[in-house]
Amino acid sequence: MATQLNIERVYVKDISFESPLVPMIFTEQWKPKVKLDLNTATRSVSEDRFEVDLRVTVTTETESDVTSLIVEVTQSGLFTISGFEPDQLKQLLATMCPNILFPYAREQIDSLMVKGGFPPIHLAPVNFDAVYAQALQAEAEKGGAEAH
User: Fold this and answer.
1) Domain tally for the chain?
2) How confident is the prediction along the chain (148 residues), in pLDDT tens digits per residue?
3) pTM to 2 decimal places
4) Distance of alpha carbon 16 from alpha carbon 73, whole angstroms
5) Whole domain around residue 81: which residue ranges?
6) What is the domain-level CATH number for residue 24?
7) Which residues, listed in sequence order, are joined to residue 116 by a DSSP beta bridge?
């Protein structure tokens, strides 16, 4: 059976922008401490169709550790994937699909920042293959620890 991975649709599922220090934050020099959190979730929609959610949260703090901004985007995609072994499918859903979604999420975050009166935050690319490998290693270590 031939393998296939098709992108059916890319869409924003949830979006949030919070700036609790406005307008006072605009009177200070913008030197934020930036924290980036990434989470993915996958669910089967039908036999060969999967929804993948990539939630990206950017939190900035002032030099005195006060939260100045929280931007959260859940960028989602509907994918048709067939012909792969279960382990390959799991890896595709955890790596390839988030790699496809991340540029869309990054653009949404930049746009929200600018519309909120802030400079854009340029998020570096994420190596989802490395993130997946780390998760597998942590899972293996946890399983090994439980066996003892």
Assistant:
1) 1
2) 689 999 999 999 999 999 999 998 888 888 899 999 999 999 999 999 999 999 999 999 988 888 999 999 999 999 999 999 999 999 999 999 999 999 999 999 999 999 999 998 889 899 999 989 998 888 888 876 655 4
3) 0.88
4) 6
5) 4-147
6) 3.10.420.10
7) none
